[in-house]
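Q: My collaborator sent me two sequences in one message, no labels, and asked for predicted structures for both. Can we handle them in order? The first one she listed is below.
A: Yes, handling them in the order given. First sequence, followed by its structure tokens:
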Amino acid sequence: MSPVGCSKHMNTLSTVTSCPLSEVQARVLTHDEVARGQALMARYHDLGFPGFVGERLYQVAHWHGQWPALIGWTAAAQRCRAREAWIGWTSMTTFRS
């Protein structure tokens, strides 16, 4: 039995995926919500979550008081030898960027 129009708010993936997208709102976390976001990332992220360093932004998908999705953005490292080697940047290219 599948829900129609999200009339029942159950904590199942099938309920969330069958909801009209118009009922889901994406927004930036407020300062007061960041600790909750970090705790959820630490609890549910497959690779663990040691935390972000530097500038960061958290966004959440909000659906009837629930957070079915959470994403965090952070600034890239200014220097990262492995990344630069993979891209093919020389030290001079890196210096100019």
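Q: And the one she listed second?
A: Here it is, processed independently of the first:
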Amino acid sequence: MRVEGHDLGGLDQQGRAALRRTSLGYVFQGFNLIPALTAAENVALPRELDGVPARRARGEARRALEEVGIGDLADRFPDDMSGGQQQRVAIARAVVGERRLILADEPTGALDTETGRRSCGCCAPAATPGRPACS
């Protein structure tokens, strides 16, 4: 199997981990948000782990949260949000940066139809070569 031009079978464990971290986004059914981090911090975390400076990662996170319609919740903690809001934080985290492949397990299960459509609309650019996942 090839992802982003890389043969997964030819990569060592460290190479596969780096590829997962930089090219793949995940939306987990259980959200997997860190309760002690704000929405913006949860979204920025993967970018910071990629080596992106914190200030830039937080800016990208805020833009991704705006894209899914909850920019006003950037400084809230997960326990202070509804399930649908937490779901949108998880979607923002999956698409922040230049993720090219989004793996999602019922990404709109906690959202109404229109909010789900709007929230997942930012996933489409991830499939377009040369475009960031959320712009």
